[in-house]
Amino acid sequence: MGDMFRSERMVLCQMFVQPEAAYPTVSEMGEVGCVQFRDLNDGVSLYQRKFVSEIRRCDELERKIHYITNELKKEEILIPEMNNETDIPRALNPKEMINLEAHLESTESEMLELTENEDKLRANFNELNELRQVLENTEGFFSDQEVLNLDSNRAGSNETLVNKNERGELAFVAGIIKRSRVFGFEQMLWRISHGNVFLRQAQLKELSIDESQKIVFVAFFQGEELKTRIKKVCTGFRATMYPCPSSHAERDEMIADVRARLEDLKMVLNQTNDHRRRVLINVSKNLPTWSFMVKKMKAIYYTLNLFNIDVSQKCMIGECWLPTRDLKIVQDALARGSAAVGNSITSFLNVIESNESPPTYNRTNKFTQGFQNLIDAYGIASYREINPALYTIITFPFLFAVMFGDVGHGLILLLFGAWMCIWEKKLSKIQGGGEIWSIFFGGRYIILLMGMFSMYTGFIYNDVFSKSMNIFGSGWRIHYNYSTILENPSLQLNPKNYTVGTYAMGIDPIWQLAENKIIFQNSHKMKLSIIFGVVHMLFGLFLNLVNHIHFRRWGAIFMEFIPQVLFLVLLFGYMVFMMFFKWAKFNARTDVFMDNPGCAPSVLIMFIDMMLFKATPPLEHCKAYLFDKQKLMQLGLVAIAIFCIPWMLFSKPLFVYMERKKRSQLMNDSNHEDEEPMSEIFIEQAIHTVEYVLSTISHTASYLRLWALSLAHSQLSEVLWSKLLSTILTINHPLIGPILLYIDFYSWAFFTFAILVLMEGLSAFLHTLRLHWVEFMSKHYKGDGYAFAPFSFKTILKAEEEEYS
Q1: Which one of 2, 645, 697, 789 has the lowest number of neighbouring Cβ atoms within 10 Å?
Q2: Is 155 within a domain?
Q3: Residue 192 is part of a domain; what is its CATH number?
């Protein structure tokens, strides 16, 4: 966990590599994944760099692999998965690239040829199939040949003879058209022929290849001119015309011939498809390996384009950031890269100095990664700045649980988080789960801790689905007799006479029956929210002190930290002190009347009076203050707190002014053109001062959301119980009662899960996130750094997998 306290120490190194060893060396860097390369060819176009041709070859290989992958998906052939990271192959050797290119080229060509042949065969098959259906469905159109006056000896074609007009015989055109176009087709035939076309039609029993319904038609007409017009109309409406003899014998002979040809085509299509599947199955075995190899190779060449080549062309130079503790790992990787090509001259690293701010790298694991993501979503920490993610592991689920405190609801979150954590290896392989599932799974350990802490705070609140647990018994004792209890709808219990000491842990279950339960919870949870808020903000300020000490900003400790802490402690810290003092001083068992709870003044009223320099008159025989000289003490606290405002406002600008004056006297130089004007420094510091003073007040009030959401959550839970289950449990009917109970229980469970767990859980999560980002992290966190992005094959492959999924 020490790695999370502050980001890793980074060094900037120069990497000197022999050209022949450059490829295996960068490959080793991708495997170890702890080096971030810098672009030393920033002014060179991407198309003018050394390894552009190799990258294009990799792109072509990726295109072919993608084409074959799509063909495998069309045939529903499963592609083997790499179950373990150890199964993922290393980058392809450049010498083996030619063999892979040749193999993929031959496979793609064969697939294209097979696909083209299959398309032609399938088109021919569909045409013959439609012709068969035309011949079969037009059987009834030519049954009355005497009426149609057709010459059966010359009706084997859909074209009329030259002398048909003279003999008064009818010609015909047969074909198929989509059903959606029949109405317009009929209208157009009527218009061009003035009603002199006789159209017969029947619906096909089988759907076409494009899953559309089609109609078989035969148009009878007379005349060459009308034949030409009808053919144009058929072409315009995309109707397919087929030859159809009018003679029954000729149709039977033609149908038999077409069926024979269809059987031959079907056999050829099956053989072609079988051969295609065999080719794809053989390729699928090596496809994942080729894909990983090509992706790694492409990444290597992209990285090599970041290197610079010296004048002698005998050395490639790269610059990279890497963690100090990983120097030995990188040096070993360099040695392995040189040994891979048998190079006697080992590549080496040279640590160089730089004024550039290094990248921020926080080493995490699967447990801490989710909390780190919450912080990085706000902003990447500055280099070596304190990392709030370490403390967020505890503070985030705790503040969430303060708003979501319920043992039952917390158990649901706990079980959901535990399920994702226990089966994380299996669940991590789910593809296409969507963004929502990715968010839930990425924060599985956050959900697990939120459930655990919610169960704890629910135990403290003594709240289980709006009901209480009687584990330690009750600290209250009833001394009324039986008749008094029966005759009075409500009775008051004085804690002086009806309690037997402090309750063991949490809230006494008897408060579940009290009419003033909400008033008690309202006061209790409101005070707790203020206490947690002040402690949380103070913790943030002290983390800022640690940052000042680490970066040796000694002046900032006096000019910023001390007045900020004083302002917060003397006002709101004092209010927290009054809460604890009030709890400790006033006791129902005391014999002193002024120490009775009835004389206890309101902490909120006292705080407002302190800020307004006034006093509210106390109750009779009571005191206005908690202790002697409290008024004088409060005046002193307010005076010091007000003094902290000009302290923060003027100390830093005056310090900068004196430093500049001292420096100019020592150097005998009054030129300050490159320095920021003093007026801007004063304005900037005034903004920061006003922002801190106002934010201290608003941030303290913002923590009241802990009280508001906790109270709302418990009341919603109680409403669901009383409105859905409580009334049904009173029904004693032997038949209706169980049925209504069954229905109401599932209704209660649904609304509990949908409203109280999902919606309220999401609301509490967002409010907790805001308390950390705004109220807590604004006290110490700058977040103006940039993330360390090492060259890692694992990261590259994972990103591409998420993109395609």
Answers
A1: 2
A2: yes
A3: 3.30.70.2250
